[in-house]
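Journal club prep — side note

Before the paper discussion, L.F. wants everyone to see what a predicted structure for a comparable chain looks like in token form. Sequence:
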Amino acid sequence: MDSPDYSRLPEQVAERVGELRALIEYHDERYHGADSPEIPDVDYDALMIELRGLERDHPQLVTPDSPTQRMYRAGQSTFDEVAHRVPMRSLDNAFNVDELRAWSDRVLRRLTSERKDDAGGAPKVTWVCELKFDGLAVSVRYEAGVLVQAATRGDGRFGEDVTANVRTIDSVPERLGDGAPSVVEVRGEVYLGLSAFTTLNAAQEAVGAKVYVNPRNTAAGSLRQKDAAVTATRDLSFWAYQLGEVVGGLKPTSHLQTLGWLADLGLPVDNHVASFESFDDVVTHIDAVEASRHDLDFEIDGVVVKVDDLATQEILGFTARAPRWAIAYKLPPEERSTLLLDIEVSIGPGGQATPFARLEPVFVGGSTVTAATLHNADQVAIKDVRPGDVVVVRKAGDVIPEVLGPVLSERPENLAPWAFPTTCPACNEPLIRSEGEAATFCGNHACPRQVRGRIEHFVSRGAMDIEGFGEQRVDLFVCEGLLEDVAGVFDLDYGRIISWEGFGDTSVDKLRRAVEASRGRPLGRLLFGLRIPHVGTTVADLLATAFGHLDLLELATIEELEAVEGLGPVIAASVHDWLRQPRNIDLLGRLRSAGVNLEGPTLNSGEELASLLAGMAVVVTGTLVGMSRDEAKAAIVARGGKSPASVSSKTTALVAGEGGGSKRLKAEELGIPILDEVGFGRLLEQGEFLN
């Protein structure tokens, strides 16, 4: 929505300024005081930007207690108060490259007015770039090298005493190394790593406890526990990045020296730090950070750019809120708020009914999002999101967009809760939810949405890989009665298809040849394409190799299936049951009649499969269509290869799905072969790839 024109309505300007100040103070308390923010950072920033703009245009409205003129003022706290001997200021933000360059120009202009270099020109500046961690700022005080106190930033002048809690963080040393001054205050960030966050939520789910929304809020809440024993269970971490008060000892002369000195004292310092003489190189570096942000095991929301020389920092000084010698460049937001227009239910190929949100379009995570998952009925109830709510949406990289929850302060009065439907939206048959299960299903195997989904999966690149069989064509063929199941793919009425608008001799012939070529796909591809429950690409290949032919797999007992390495009783029972259902027996008979390949790999033994990729290091990145990234890695390891997390000179090949990002760039730089899913399939089947 466009902002109103206040130019001729001073009373409305004053009213809006008051509204903005109240909103900002409310959200400050939610973020800093309660560790439970309602809105994403980008929406909070928008409020501050609007307030600053109005105060700039109407300076008579600026007051000392405005949020633009001071730090957040903490309310009542259950922790003891700690006075910061050196204020802990926040940073000003830049939201685009133009704002970032404008800041650097201001720095240079200010320095030019203060001093000239020997040649009479503008002073030279070295810029340091650090990651902006998404955690909680703290100050840790050491006296005679021993930790004596730790405090949150609070309002910048006074924080909360969290000493006992910080002592539980393994990466915060109780005693500094040799050379520590008599007093040193270390500023840094307490955060929860992504792997630690995943482990914590898995433990919470296992006992039916609350699942946490994001690492930042969880870290903040964990640090502010009254019982330090609870904090100790949260696996928090710490990065040091700045100094406060220092008494005695040798003092560094630059920020880079400071970081090195902190590391020498035994404090954890992140190694993603770079310095540049040219500001163009700073901008290039920020682009590289944005491309690789999801390769980190902790969340970041920007890059902090600082003037390196500490004497120059003193010349530049501070505003009321922030240093003039540093700025935070905010990366594109991965959380935004938008209007929830409706909640709908989609029916998957296996019949699972999944609720999803229809959203007012919002740009988040690098793309415009109009829909987001809500997972299942329980999640909708727990989050209590309702059509008409303003909701927070998260999209990180290639992850499917997700609705995190409502902004309750924005909820309209008398907004009715959403109820999960009782009938399938595609076929009107009853939806079924078994006792103790989170998922809801449509039990009608002939449901048109299920039929379409099964066929779309069967013809996809990871399965039978039939080019020209996109979603629109599948939908058309099913609607016209041309397809009822996957076996019908090999019995298409091409004469009828060519009579339809949009189909000519060339396109129909291309489709026919693609279908014919797919008859020879490996048995593992066929088994995966059949959507047998619990059978992904890795399990499908294991079955194809273990039994060598579909006929033998059909005759296998549960005991014989369980004997296959990599299969457990659940998968074995699922495969056994699926193969004995009458409709599936009929389906396999029709595929057999269609001449589809039913033979497994020509490898002589399991040992030969296990050595197929011996000596190879294959990195997987991006989103694959036919399998998850974990399944791809498992398939590589099952064949004797390695699947490291990063690209190096020792990497044999990179498998790049959608959104490969920094790993693809690294592979291109090193001249390492990059495989698509077709090339990856050839590698798994034959142990080789085409360069």
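L.F.'s comment for the group: Residues 448-518 form a domain with the DNA polymerase; domain 1 fold (CATH 1.10.150.20). Keep this in mind when we get to the figures.
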